[in-house]
Structure prediction request, 451 residues.
Amino acid sequence: MNTLLRNYRAKVTKAAPLAVFRILFGFLMFVSLVRFWWNGWIEKLYLEPSFHFHYYGFEWVQIPPGNWIYVLFIAAALSALAVMIGFYYRWAISMFFILFTYIELLDKTTYLNHYYFISILSFLLIFLPMHRYFSWDARRGDHIAAEYVPQWTVDSIKLLLAIVYIYAGLAKLNHDWLFNAMPLTLWLPVKFETPLIGFLMHERWMHYLFSWGGAIYDLTIVFFLLNKRTRVFAFAMVVIFHVLTRVLFPIGMFPFIMIFSTLIFFSPSFHQSILNRLSNLLSINIHRFNNKKTWRFGANKWHRLRAAVLILFFSIQILFPLRYLVYPGNIYWNELGYRFSWRVMLMEKTGYANFKIVNAQTGKRFYVENDDFLTAFQEKQMSTQVDFIIEYAHHLGEHFAAQGHEHIQVFVESYAALNGRMSQTYVKDDIDLLQVDQNSDYNELILPLNE
Prediction:
C-alpha cells in the first residue's frame, strides 16, 4: 500500500489541464458576477430587503453600508480576471474565495448548490499549482514556471467533481424521485413550449425517463469520463444533460460551469492543443513555457501543511453531506442536513406562515404582515424552512419589543405541501418561538410528514 502511494505521488503530468481549468474558471466567474449585477440582482437580493437571514455561526456577515456591496462585486470580478490570466495567482484566488464566499454568506435566502460548489472549488484551487504554466506568473518568473506537475493535482479536481456527481445521484435514490417522478411531474408539463420536445412534456413516461435518467447519469458519468474509450461519449452526454436542464429550468451559469469543468477529465494533449490555439489567437509564444521543469510537492512545513489541509478538506466533503442521517424524519420535509449535500432540484415545496404576536400577560394579540418585513422571495423561502421561521420570529420579537410592546410571545401558523401532497401543518403552533434557541435542534418543532 505504501509503495502504491509513493508511486502515485511520484507520477507527473503536463500542467496544461490545470492552466485550461484556471482560464475557464476565471472567465466563467467573471461572467457570472457581471451577469448578477447586470440583471439587477444585487439590488433585489441584498439592498431592497430590510432584513437578511443568516447562516449558523456567520451572523457577523453583514451587508456593507451604502453602496459598498458593489465594491465587493467589482473586487471579486477583478480577482476572477486575475485568476484567469494567472496574475499573482495565489493572492487572486485567495481573494476571490474570500469575497465570493462572503457574498454567498450575506443572506441564506440566496443559497444554491452551485454557489457552494464555487466556494469550495475556489478554496481547493488555492492549494494547487494552477499558475505554473501559461500564466502571467510563469512568464515573469522562471522560478514559478513548470511544464509538469504531480498527477494528484489534476486528480484532486476530478475527485471533487466525482463527489458532487455521486452524491447528487445518491440523493435521487428516493421514493418520490424514482417511483412518483416528483417533482418533475409538476414541473415538466408547463414546459410545453420548449422547442422540439415540448409536446412530450405532459407525457407521464417522459417524467419517469427524466427522473431515472438523471439518477443514472449522476451515478455513472464520472466513471465514463475516467475511461478513455467512453470519454467522448460521456462528455457529449454532459453537454446534452446540462444544456437540456438549462433550457428547461432557470439555474443560471451552473450548467456551463459543470460542462467546462468536466474537460479536466480529458488527456493533457487535448488541453495542450487548446492552449496552442489560444496562444496563436493571442500571439503568445507558448514555447517559452515549455521548459521541461517539474513542480514538486516538497517536504517543507508549507507543503506538509498544504497536504494536511487537503486531506481535511476532502474528508469534510465526503462526510458533511451525510449529516442528515443523524436527524429522524423525511429530509425533504424537515430539511435538516439538506443544504450543502448536493440535493439538486429534488423537491417542490410550497408553504404559508402566519405569525401571531401575543402579550403573555393580557392575552392581546395581533397578526404580522410579512411583506412589511420580507420581500416576496424571502417570504417564500421562509415559509417552508424551519430555521428561517425561527430566525424570523426572533427578529419580529426584537422589532416589536423596540416599539414598546411587552411580554411578547411569537407563534406561527404554518402549512407546507411537499411534492404534490396535500398541504399540512408544518411547525407546531402552540410553542412560543422566542423560547426556542436559534441554534438548537429544530426537529422537535416540526410535525411529522403525513404521507
About this structure: The chain has a mean pLDDT of 93. The longest helix spans residues 16-38. Residues 348-445 form one domain. The chain has two domains: 11-324, 348-445.
